[in-house]
Design goal:
GO terms for molecular function: ATP binding; ATP hydrolysis activity; transmembrane transporter activity. The chain is of the alpha/beta class. It has 36 helices and 31 strands. Helix 13 packs across helix 14, helix 23 packs antiparallel against helix 24 and helix 26 crosses helix 36.
Amino acid sequence: MIQLENINKIYPGNVQHAINSLNMTINEGEFCTFVGPSGCGKTTTLRMINRLDIPDSGEVYIQGQPLSSADIIQVRRKIGFVMQSPALFPHRTVAENIATVPRLLGWDKRAISRRIDELVALMSLNPLVLKRYPHQLSGGQQSRVSIARALAADPPILLMDEPFAAIDPVVRDRLQGELLALQARLHKTIILVTHDINEAIRLGDRIAIFREGGHLGQFDTPDNILSWPASDFVRDFIGPEPNLKRLGMMRVGDLPRRDVPVFTHGEPTSSDPNLLHGQRALVLDAEGRPQHWQENGQQLPVRIAKESDSLRHVYSALLDVPQGVLVRVTAAGHYAGAVDSALRADAAAFADGAAVTGDGHAAYRRNACTVHRLARAVRPADFPERGAVYHPVAGAVYSAATLDRTVSYHGGMQKLPADVLESGRALGYTRFGRFIEVELFLILPALFAGLRIASVTLADHWGGDLGIWHRFGEHLYYVLVSLLLGALIAQPLGILLGYWRRGAFFAINLFNIGQAFPSLGIILLCIMLLGFNDVPVFIALVALAIPPMLTNTYVGISHADQTLCDAAKAMGMTPLQSLIRVRIPLAMPLIFAGIRTSLLQLIATAVVAAYAGLDGLGRFLIDGLGQRDYPQVIAGSVNACAQHNIKERRVMMMKNWLTTASKGFRLTLLAAGLASVGFAAHAETVTIGGANYSEQTILANIYASALKQQGIEVKTRLNLGNREIIIPALKSGELDVVPEYLGALLNYYHGGSKATTEQEVSAELQQALPADLALLKPSSAASITAWGVREETAKKYNLKTLSDLAKVAPELVVGGPPEVATRALGLPGLERVYGIKFKSFKSLDIGGPLSRLALNSGKIDVATLVSTQGDLLKEKWVVLEDDKHEQPAQNLVPLVHKGAVSPKVEDVLNDISAKLTTKDLIQLNKLVDVDHKDPAKVADQWVKEKLAAK
């Protein structure tokens, strides 16, 4: 079927062979596994069979045809390829992903639909997932879909590159069993690459063990490799306890059936002959499923062994079963016999019988030989009911708890919850239209709101050619025409440069040099060259629109996910098909981000262009300033207000627009060039922000670590600065969660508040917060703003309290973050409560490295600190007591964007607040600021110690 003759491969820049003189023949219908250390040539060999990599010398044959002279596109369409990651196209639904190769082959829609239904049933997928997108699936579901896609055109060959590497052990074990069952039905020629020798032994009819330098160490059946390793390398790679590995090769279903007394539930137990003389019997329900043991009038629990379970697990389970018997069941849960201490004899009889029948199936012969050996290797042993036991084959001591977990785990009693992500909060990653955010429609709500406000004083500016409506139409026309012309130039050029990667440096930098010139200078230069009319202005606007679109398109095309591009190539897509169906859709986030950037730049530049005679909203600014007609200036400023509103409301508005809009409407918007794209995170993605000092970084990382522990995708945006940056970002939806402090937040919204206790502050803050923000449960941990001086300064002026500081403050320089100079709880609060006026103020940070350096070096005399910062334990500073209680309660509290976090996220954050203490904060800050530990690792450790996984 597949033959590799004297294959050699050395990658450019390497001296060592990736593949060295490889010769191998893989038979039709054989399941072959490639295993070995990293960099030994496993994946390279697999890719050569699909011609994704080309050998330097040698030849690969498929059904006798050399690949070097074959139509490789057609060959690839007859080979299923499962990449190391699922490599599902994120812009396509599950059904569209599965249908990729049939569509390439020209199947009609009905045939494709029937095939999809067959594969859904074959791969045990829920039909509901067909309309979902890859990001809405769990890891196990994605792997199943990836295999279904590879099997869609019913190829005779299936290549699999570590398909289960990134999946948790429970799902991996299940998928391995499903793959074996699949092969038993389909009899494909399968080659699977893995790093796991146990996986290779379980799945493969033959195993190829590669070693470094691309050499083939041994290519043989699992049993022969375990029994007679070809070299010390192979022996070391297999590892200890080969007998234990052999146990995993044999399934319960391969053993001869052994029955126990049974009766159907509901029959008279007293007259049942199976119960005479105190004999134990198994009670079945009407459908033949085991219910319990019946013995001496008592009901005893049943432990089961599925026919798909390995003997390794069954041996372990038998050691901890009080009845000494496991009930054997089918995949549907029906009674199929029993497994007891006679297993050893059954295995020997089966092995002997298999040798006589001479069954030709490779896996059957291998298992028969294995069990024959094991049956003679296992010495007789009693099966104790409880406690630690010695496993005769494994050569190890197992505790009862370990055995309980093993039976539960392999008995199918643990179920992987379906990772079906809700789509209410996000649009997901779909086709072009589903990415569209229409900036024009985002502008309109704010624009009309601004116009309503302006209309009070601008009654004379509504009608006529000089009115607001007319100016708005002109401005919109200039922007959209310039954007469309720029897109017609930038997009094809960017796609061409990104795909061929020739001349990109020259073209992109030429446009970027032009972009570096001031926009007004470019407009005036064009007017000087082409005359005073609209044409030079349009040329200037188009020139300014091109660079962001060109650069983003080039980067999006040239840096498309190589795994997905390889997957497209492996399926047999031509270069043009790969470009249109894969690269361009994958590049859409960057392409439309460039369009959005150009759109915003054009909106602003078109205002400035009024200086060069262009009409539009900019005329209100230019004419109004010249005439001192301030209502006109207000009208012109409405445009800037609209631009700001784009950032504030784009996510929530576009969810409503695009969720209800038809596909045709979205594509029309795309063709008109009125759109820009944003990729919203899926429903379980949370963006966490934090200010620019250690404690905030630690807290943000604690939130992130705890959420990740619960399987929630998290993004962090740290060191963002002060609340003047963070709060608007939270309100706009760019952030979902930030750690905050009750008193400081109340001061931000209500500087004149008299509240001091936690309850008073919380109550006032709930009233003061905007409608789109919400507080979660406050923590007992608190961190207040403090004021510190060096020890020598404290001794010199006898400073212990802030009241003491008031006497000498005019001689001292204070340092802190910029906002402390204006906030009520900063310097104005000190002046109000204590009468403190400093000599001068230096803008630094709050208790951060700048303040530490300035205070220790004498550049400042008083530093704005945080009461929980860890270096207070190390530095020779004196924190002055707030003897008049100027600071209100500063309990830590998560502040969230309403509707942006699910109840599950809220529960996690509230759990953090409940567990976090002020002592914890001080210690965490010390680890980062004094011991110089990584904040993320410090946070992970706290979460591991304080929060139990749920």
